Amino acid sequence: MRLFSRNSSSLEHDVTVVFRRVFTWLAVFPATWFVVFFLWPTIHALTSLTSWSAISDTLSSQTTWNVLWFTTWQAVLSVAATFVVAMPITWILARFVFRGSRWVRGIVSTPFVLPTVVVAGAVMSLLPLRYQFGVHGIIIAHVLFNVAVVVRIVGARWQTISPNSTSAAAVLGASPLQVFWHVTIPQLRGAMYNAGLIVFVFTFTSFGVVAVLGGITRRTLEVEIYTNAINLGFFDTAMVLAVVQLLAVLLVFAITSTVSRRQTSDGGTTFHRIPLHDHPRHRLRISVVAIATPAFIALPFAMLFIKSFRAGDTWTLNAWRNLWNGSLDRVGLDIPSVMWRCLIFAGTTVLIAVPMAYIVASLSVYMRRGSAVLRTITSLPIIISAVTLGFGIIVTFNESPYDWRGQTWLIPIVHALVALPLVVYLLTPAIQAVSPTQRDAARTLGASPLRVWWHIDARLMRTPVLSAGALSFSVSLGEFGATTFLSRSSSTTLPIAINQLLGRPGTSLQASGFALAALLALTTAVVMSRA
Amino acid sequence: MLTACSDSASDQNGSSNKEVVLLAYDSFTPEDGVFDDFTSETGYSVKVVSGGDSGAVISKAILASGNPEGDVLWGVDNTSLSRVLDADVFDSYQEVNTGDICVNVDNEWFASRDIPIPSTLEDLIRPQYKNLLVVQDPVSSSPGLGFLLATVARFGEDNWAQYWNSLQENGVLVAPDWTNAYYTNFSGSSGKGDRPLVVSYGSSPPAEVVFSDPPVDAPPTSVMEASCFRQIEYVGVLRGTQNTEGATALVEYLLATKFQESMPLTLFVFPINIDAQLPDVFVKFAARPETPLSLSPDVIADNRDTWLEKWREIVLS
Predict the structure, then answer these.
(1) Three-class SS of residue A77?
(2) Fewer CB atoms near the end CB (10 Å): N or C, chain B?
(3) How far apart are CA A245 and CA A67, in angstroms?
(4) Are β-strands B197-201 and B133-136 bridged in parallel, bridged antiparallel, or unpaired?
(5) B43 to chain A nearest CA, in Å?
(6) Is the dihedral of CA A347, A348, A349, A351 positive or negative?
(7) Beta strand B270-271 with B221-238: parallel, antiparallel or unpaired?
(8) Which domains can be identified in chain A, with CATH numbers?
(9) Which of B49, B190, B312 comes nearest A488 by C-beta?
């Protein structure tokens, strides 16, 4: 049905035409925001800080190619490992309801929005000492991070596949594996492609995880960019590497975009999930996966909790108490006001990211062509190295009245940029799933396009919009990339505070760092389980 | 959010003369109210603007050289001074504090095994101390760089590489950053690591006392004084500031006794001002070698990249 509305203009629905026009006009807002706060500064940084000699030196250096090679293969391996771990739990969450299924969903989604330093530290504390640095830790952390992407994106699609299609095949004698391979997978292909692409982008541009767990031997492009820009002061080399990283990801987008065109959609019927106790055949297996996967994901975070209650050999609440009683003032951290400020940042991020993403997603659904290009452009904030945007803001917004360096309001704006691609990915299928025939029926009965939107779209989109809000809220709470480069006056965020506490000698500070990380993890789990 | 936005905008345009902006790294955490006296004496309020670690703050200051984000910069040390001076970032600058980067020791580990605590850099390459030391990557970590410079200062341009070969043979572990080295690999703090020697600061033992839970009278760690490399931190007036008068007054205040005396327990460094009194816990437990290892900022600037490259070759081979 959706293919109809998009591809054959002669039969196009009247409301679709109106919506296309309206959302094209509304696109002025996200476009302006995106160009001013993202494209302009990053392009400015990339062009003004580089030099011809840096380009030839960097491209002729063996190190560059070694790093690019490692970056690529660890990303591919991470994507594969993520799917292996994530597919069983995705199936279960898409097909069954059971006691605690909401919490399972919350727990597997939590690491995704936690600051990488926390996840990397949590994984490291569980690895045997001799395996601490190297590729194993990197892959494990990447899987922990990205299971959520598969659960969310593939799961949403899985719920729209009719259980009848699989039972029909089973009745005709297909084994469960054959059913999965020949009936389910072809229908999931588009969603798996989307999820795979996001996981690839995240692991290809991975910084915190690799910086901590890679030791000194394993380095991705993003780590190399940071080292050159921040530790060595070779801005030009850093910018060349940033362009190499950008081009590599765009190349992957281009190669794989042929796959994405083949995706289909059924027009958005979501099938009810089956209560698990009605389904005794797989019950044992399902229960094992439903317990094992969140346990694997939660284990490193459980360690954070345990450590936050330890002092020497005893159990204590001191680390948690110290978060509130002002004893961290000595290290310049007023945690209650940090929390309060972060909630305001997160709320503001939601108010920016969700409407902007809604307009972009609607446009990509209603526009006749170019939606792939639009999607690539909106993905840029998670592809471009965080250093680039940080530097871009320094070299761009430096003249009055545009001297915005160090302005606090830049923080939610940047958070919303980071959340934008994810929220667009989340909203697009939901908007696609709204049936044009339903809108037409309402239109025929005399409703104005605005009323059609209000009574049909707005009603059907309530749940996806709430999910989008929860996602952007959590992204803001945990953002530890671009924000760390922004200059800010008394506006420490939670991840920065955690980093500060774990970065000083003194056991009580460290325990409070763990407590704060655990609190962030818990808050995120609660928010994400509602979404 | 909107109010916050318009407030800061009016700060910038309307009353910029009455405010001095101090740029610093994230872990610059002065005592609450430490600038109150400055405000009542001069009429200037102080706004501390932070953004990242010292590397990030310095990189941004270099990018903004001549059109700075603030008036005064805190966070340049003797390993980065030349980089900042080459980019002409400062109008003027002064030494503001000193500290030492030293090998820290888990006292209990050595006592319980009846092994003498190593006392010189040469000891660290003896078979008796095999697999006991964890250091940081000097490329990304400032204590890591300090320790590398300590070995250069001690063994000289010609022999430091040989020393690192021996360290490598003796099982030195290189961690990516201070946090992991100190809390994960080192056995002496809260970590359950298996290495009783770690590169940290001369002031880490007093910090172990001040921030300990449960409280302790003496630190579980001590410092190997012969390994200490002297770090000097600078504060400077940024070239291009619109508020030279306020900036100069602030630098003066940062060098005066009151602020200098607040530094040991908030930033864990030693005052540069000789009139400043040290807190007891510092006098008792902080290392203060009389003749620390040191190198001039010029020598560091001229050779740092070569040394780092050489170091990577040794350690990665």
Answers:
(1) helix
(2) C
(3) 11
(4) parallel
(5) 20
(6) positive
(7) unpaired
(8) 1-47+331-484 (1.10.3720.10), 64-308 (1.10.3720.10)
(9) B49
A positions 254-313 inside 8 Å of B (CB): 310-312
Domains and CATH numbers, chain B: 3-98+231-285 (3.40.190.10), 100-230+289-315 (3.40.190.10)
Structural contact between residues B49 and B21, judged by C-beta atoms closer than 8 angstroms: yes
Q: Which of A61, A210, A230 to mutate to test the interface with B (most CBs of B within 10 A)?
A: A230
**Distance of alpha carbon A71 from alpha carbon A206, whole angstroms:** 9
CA torsion angle A506 A511 A516 A519 (round to 10): 180
Q: Indicate the residue of A318, A394, A489 with minimum beta-carbon distance to B63.
A: A394
Phi and psi dihedrals of A506, rounded to 5? 125, 115
Q: How far is B163 from chain A (nearest CA, A)?
A: 19
Tokens (6 digits) for A270: 């979501």
Please tell me the distance in Å from A52's CA to the nearest CA on chain B: 19
- Interchain contact, A485 vs B56, CB within 8 Å: yes
* B-chain residues near A206 (CB < 8 A): none
CB proximity A402 to B under 8 Å:
no
Residue with tokens 């070299």: A395
Q: Kindly provide the ipTM of the predicted complex, given to two decimals.
A: 0.82
**Touching B: A residues 449-508, CB under 8 Å:** 484-490, 492, 496, 499-500, 502-508
Q: What does the alpha-carbon distance between residue A112 and residue A152 come to, in Å, rounded to a whole number?
A: 11
- For chains A and B, CB pairs below 8 A equal 180
**β-pairing verdict for A310-311 and A488-489:** unpaired
Are B176 and A394 in contact (CB < 8 Å)?
A: no
In this complex, do B4 and A330 lie within 8 Å of one another by their Cβ atoms?
A: no
Shortest Cα distance, chain A CAs vs residue B51, angstroms: 4
How do the pLDDT tens digits run along chain B, 317 residues long?
333 333 333 344 344 468 999 999 888 888 888 999 999 999 999 999 888 888 889 999 999 999 999 999 998 999 889 889 999 999 999 999 999 999 999 999 999 999 999 999 999 999 999 999 999 999 888 899 999 999 999 999 999 999 999 999 999 999 888 888 898 889 987 667 889 999 999 999 999 998 887 888 999 999 999 999 999 999 999 999 999 999 999 999 999 999 999 999 888 899 999 999 999 998 999 988 999 999 998 999 899 989 998 998 898 87
On chain B, the residues whose CB falls within 8 A of the CB of A332 are 28-30, 266
